[in-house]
Structure formats: structure tokens, C-alpha cells
Amino acid sequence: MKKTGRILILIAAILVCVLLNVILFLTVPDARLKTSVFWLAWSFTFPLNLAAYVAIFLWTGKKTGDAIVQMPIAYWVSQIFCVIYLGLGILFMYFPFKHVTFPLIIELIVTVAYAVIAMYAIFGAEYIMSDERKVKQKVLFVRLLQNDVEGCIAYATDPAVKAALSSLAEKVRFSDPMSHPSLAGVEAELSATVSEISMQLSSGNVAGATELIRKAEIQLERRNSRCIILK
Mind listing the pLDDT tens digit of every residue in the chain (231 residues)? Predict the structure, then answer.
């Protein structure tokens, strides 16, 4: 969700709270305004509810940005619990509950549930996003290597060299995409060989490029066999 949209929703929530308070104090009997139950329910329904709502908005905006999908899970959590707080608050403020114990227990249960689910949603979203970033880093080598090999084809004028490069690019494409720290050495060698292929083709050395393509295929096989061992 864009920053402007988040701010507008937050302003709308505050305005709704103000309007509900106006309606509330105009319609609730004066006798109810003097009870502990009323003010307990009011404090959970408005100040605490709004504070939690704002906190969720600020946290998701700072930490998860646009989050996993366009709406963070925590955003929907705040919406659901906002409605629950409102419903319980109206119930406790309008109906003649005489003792504060039962409303307090219910409100505390809801608050604890709110906190647990909100924290789970926020940190769960962060964990997933962090995991996605790690996966992208691990598959980056194969993607870049395929792009480099395909780039070499543009410099090849010999049909046999083009066919060999196309075959190498296809082998790279169907290689295990997940990299690993223990593969750093062989992957560095493979990248260097592909760079040498590009240089040989640029200088017109077909024989040198052909020999390096075979070398790259051997290095790729070594890399992929190590991937199988690491699983």
C-alpha cells in the first residue's frame, strides 16, 4: 500500500473515532457515564484501540513496506481487532453491566490475543521476506551465468561455436539454481572461464573459444555434482 493511501486510511480511522464518540456521548444515558464499566469499555474501545491501530500502521510501514502481498497480514489483523474492540465496547457501554470484573477479563483476553497475533503477523512477514531475499541471492549466480553465456553468442560468428554456446547456455539453464558458500571456488572459476570465452570471441580466436567452452562445460558439471552432494 502506498504511503499516501496509508495516511488517508489513518486519518479516516481517527475521524470515525471522533464521530463515534460524539454519537456515543449524545446517546448513552447519563447514569451510565458515571459507572466504572463505561469508562473501562471506553478506554479499550477508543484510546487503546486507536493506539494499537496506529502502532501497527507505523510498524508495517517502516519494517515491511508493501509487505508480501500489497496488504500486510498485520494490517488485516488491526482491522479485525478494531471491529472486535468496537463491538465489545458498545456492548459494555450501553448494556447495564454492574460489575467491572467480567468486562475487564474479556477486554484483557482480546488485548492479549491482539498483541500475540499482531506480533506473529509482523515478525512472520519479516521472516518470509528475509528468506525470500536469501533465496534470490542463492539463485543469482546461475541467472547471471546464463545471461553471460547467452551474451557470448552475439560475438560468435562460427556456426559450430554458436551451437556449442547454445548447448552450454541450455546446460546452465537446467542446472541446480541454488548456490552454496562451498561452491564459491568452482563458481568463480566458471565465471572467469565464461569471461575468457567472451574475450576470445571478441578477438576472433575461434579455436581458443571452443577449447574454453569445453572447459566451462567440465566446470559446470563439477559444480552441479557438488550441488547434488550438498543436498
Answer: 456 666 777 788 788 888 888 988 888 888 888 889 899 989 988 888 888 777 776 665 554 444 333 345 666 777 788 888 888 888 898 888 888 889 889 989 988 888 888 777 666 655 555 555 555 555 678 888 888 888 888 888 888 988 999 999 898 888 877 777 777 888 889 989 999 998 888 888 888 889 999 999 999 898 888 887 776
Long-range contacts of 114-121 (CB under 8 A, 24+ apart): 114/52, 114/77, 114/81, 117/77, 117/81, 118/52, 118/56, 118/74, 118/77, 118/78, 118/81, 121/72, 121/73, 121/74, 121/77
Q: Tell me phi and psi for residue 123, to 5 degrees.
A: -75, -30
Q: Cβ(69)–Cβ(44) under 8 Å? A: no
| Cβ-based neighbour number of residue 21 at 10 Å | 13
Alpha helices in the chain (DSSP H): 3-27, 30-33, 36-43, 49-59, 73-94, 101-153, 159-173, 184-202, 206-230
